[in-house]
Amino acid sequence: MSDESQVQELVYTKAKLGRRLLGHFMDIGILFLASLILYAAMNSIVVNTSWYKSKNDELTTIKNDSGLYIEGVLATSYVLDDEKYPTNEDKKNELSGRILSFYQNPTYFSNNDALTKYNERRLAAKGDGVPLFKQEGEYIIENAVEDTLLYQFYEKEIEEYSVGYLVNNLTYLILTKLSFFTSIVEIVIVTTLNFVVLYLVFPLTCFKRGRQTIGMKLEKIGLISVRADNVRTGVYIGRFFFMYFVFLPINFVSFLIPSIVSTTMMYLTKTNSSLPNYIFNDYMVDVTDQDIYLNILEIEESKNKVASASIENRDFKLK
Q1: pLDDT (tens digit per residue) in 232-284
Q2: How far apart are CA 193 and CA 58, in angstroms?
Q3: Who contacts 155 (Cβ-Cβ below 8 Å, separation ≥6)?
Q4: CA end-to-end span of the chain, whole Å?
Q5: Listed residue (277, 268, 302, 278) closest to 222, CA to CA
Q6: Cα separation of 243 and 247, whole Å?
Q7: DSSP 314
Q8: For residue 285, what is the enclosing H or E element?
Q9: pTM score of the predicted model
């Protein structure tokens, strides 16, 4: 018997590009939704830990001690309570006192530079063409103008200048960044966990025939190796690590250039191979009417022939 008669004739149908893309977007949607749910659960646990509460209380104390916050709320928002501050005069009196106290607080300022600049802004401020403040001896006092104009000046001063000084305070900055980086760490953890489950655990356990993700399973597409059988476990794990530690980070820092290149390759190559397909020498096929063999031995057992399949040798085809 000739060698050719010993060769397994296998015919696979290429997965349509539309189904591949739809499966991919399904996986992204599942990843996003699962990560959102897990993040909410994790964050609810983290914010209730004694460590997080102590840091948050410390941050709130710093805010309140600055005078720019009242009960943890920015003063400009707090005075909007018309029951506590029924008139613009009440509002502007509350804000003006807090601003002056803040600029004179040695905890935040080692010199009078900020206070000097504040006084300069006061003397330069005008409303309806009329100066809002005037110099009277060594003091700067309010002119006889509408309370609304003065209130608007103090509101702008806090939101555009005073808060900026507070943010530059080292302790405040550290505590604020700590909260921010805690959220970033949580996002990385939950995204990684879900990515591992979706793109590694499922393809290695539940949907190992074809190394399918949930999106691939729903779209009935799977991966085959160059020998027309299932992608080996070690190879697939290597593929996963490449996707997570190389492909995705480069996408993140290069505005999706690898994904654009990969999608372009899918349209231009004869076998519709993406960049990962090309690197790992595997192929995406339609499994609607045909299962993927787990290994060459399974091919032998199913057909009772010696299989030696390779795309390069035209032993099986993508149509």
Answers
A1: 999 999 999 999 999 999 999 999 999 999 999 999 988 899 999 999 999 99
A2: 32
A3: 76, 95
A4: 28
A5: 277
A6: 5
A7: T
A8: strand 282-286
A9: 0.73
d(CA 55, CA 220): 50
**Measured between alpha carbons, how far is 272 from 218 in angstroms, rounded to an integer?**
20
Residue with tokens 């506590």: 84
For residue 8, which amino acid is it?
Q
Which residues are CB-neighbours of 47 under 8 A, at least 6 positions away? 53, 56
Segments in 254-308 forming alpha helices (H): 257-268, 275-280, 296-303
Please tell me the predicted confidence (pLDDT) of residue 227.
87
* Helix, strand, coil percentages for the chain (3-state, nearest 5): 60, 10, 30
Residue 259 and residue 24 in contact, taking contact as beta carbons nearer than 8 Å: no
Helix ranges (H only) for 104-169 are 113-124, 147-157, 163-167
Yes or no: say if 147 and 92 are a contact pair by the CB < 8 Å rule: yes
**Strand pairing category for 126-127 and 73-74:** unpaired
Q: How far is CA 94 from CA 45, 65, 158, in A?
A: 37, 15, 12
d(CA 13, CA 280): 19
Torsion of CA 221, 226, 231, 235, to 10 degrees: -130
Round to whole Å and give the CA distance between 165 and 143.
Answer: 27
DSSP secondary structure letter of residue 262: H
Q: Looking at residue 23, what is its pLDDT?
A: 96
